Amino acid sequence: MTIRRLAFICIILTYFLIVFGGYVASSESGMGCGPEWPLCNGKVFPTLRGETLIEFLHRGIGAILGIMSLILFIKLMRRKIGYTARFVSVMMLGLLIIQVLLGAVVVVLDLPPIIITIHLLTAMLFMACLIWIWRYSETEGQSAMKPLKAKEHRKVIMHLNILLFLLFLTLAFGAYIKHETYGLACGWLDCKQSFLPAAVPELLQSIHRGLAVISAVHILLLTYLSYSKGWGRSLRRRLMFCTLMVVLQMIIGAVVIKTFVAVPWAVFHLAIATALFTIVSEARVYAGAQIMQWMSYRAGDRKWNEEEHERRSF
């Protein structure tokens, strides 16, 4: 199996694992295997029903992902790759190890919200590394193409970096609120019939919503700039898709509150948020690859001009 295909499978598994982890939490199945790890209720293969089945499936998917990620790392190390690719590969493996350890801590300490939140954020960073590897394996060895000017690409990358940071913070607050059961601290538009938070749960919920609004506005702004500044069809498609997902996420967020955090809607809310982070991460990697191609193109162009000048002088 090629590195690109293996990396893509790992991305899909990571996404499914994150969303399924949301279902485990929402269905209150996190202790389905008891306070034990790696055993489940004292057994390697326990009786699979109810909460135990849900938690054991989550662990099983994680184990499969871990094995495939390790194979991916070994494949990368056996190839002649650059410093950046090697660094990202080592980071991916490091995040995988941290993720496994955090999973054990979560179970042993009986689901502490702050550790669960860090567990989720580590998974997001792990997926970002996989996306980089997937993109790297696609562009490696391809001839340089002439995309946007380097100055314009740097602006795009700066905006995408800011957006990723905003989405990361939004996910962090959302996860912590979820696991502290602060999801209903505020209504759809206000907090306890007031627009100003009066307690810690309301404050955290308000920060989460504020970050979500800022992220949504930033995505809308980037989508507008992609068309007005001519950032290219590929980036425009990605940002337009992000815009549609933001609108969908706002609707789902309202439904989550109206249904008193019903399990299907809460999981759907996490699924869209994770997909949005994934797409923006991929767009960031894509933009970075494009500026490297532009620099390579310019370097090749200068070299050709110098050689042509020497040839004519001779």
Return the domain count.
2
Instruction: Give helix % range.
Output: over 70%
Strand content: under 5%
Average residue-wise pLDDT: 85
How does the major sheet shape up? none
Oligomer: single chain
What ranges have pLDDT less than 50 throughout 5 or more consecutive residues?
A: 140-146, 294-314
In N-to-C order, the SSE pattern is: HHHHHHHH
The radius of gyration computed from the alpha-carbon positions, rounded to a whole number of angstroms, is 22 Å
Give the CA-CA distance, first to last residue: 51 Å
What is the molecular shape?
A: flat
Q: How many helices does DSSP assign?
A: 8
Count every beta strand, where a strand is a DSSP E run of 2 or more residues: 0
Overall SS class: mainly alpha
Secondary structure: elements and pairs:
Layout: H1 3-26, H2 50-78, H3 83-108, H4 113-139, H5 150-179, H6 200-228, H7 233-258, H8 263-313
Helix pairs in contact: 1-2, 1-4, 1-8, 2-3, 3-4, 4-5, 4-8, 5-6, 5-8, 6-7, 7-8
Keywords:
77% helix; 314 residues
Q: Could you please describe the fold and organization of this structure?
A:
It is a single chain. The protein has eight helices and no strands. With 314 residues, it is mainly α. Mean pLDDT is 85; it is low at 140-146 and 294-314.
What's a quick, concise take on this entry?
The protein is mainly α and 314 residues long. It is 77% helix and 0% strand. The chain has helices at 3-26, 50-78, 83-108, 113-139, 150-179, 200-228, 233-258, 263-313.
